[in-house]
Amino acid sequence: MIYGLLFVTLQDIAFQRMKLTTILLLAAGLLTACGNSPARARKTAKNNAATTLPSEPKYYTYRVKAAYPHSPKAYTQGLLWHEGELWEGTGLHGESVVQTLDLQTGRSRELVRLPRAEFGEGIAILGDELFQLTWQSNTAHVYRITEEGLKKIRDHRYAGEGWGLTSDGKKLYMTDGSANLYTLDPATFRREGHVTVTWRGEPVSYLNELEWIDGRIWANVYTTDQLVIIDPATGRVEGVVDLTGLLPDEERTPTTDVLNGIAWDADAKRLFVTGKNWSKLFEIEIIEQ
Question: Is 133 inside any structural domain?
Answer without folding.
Answer: yes
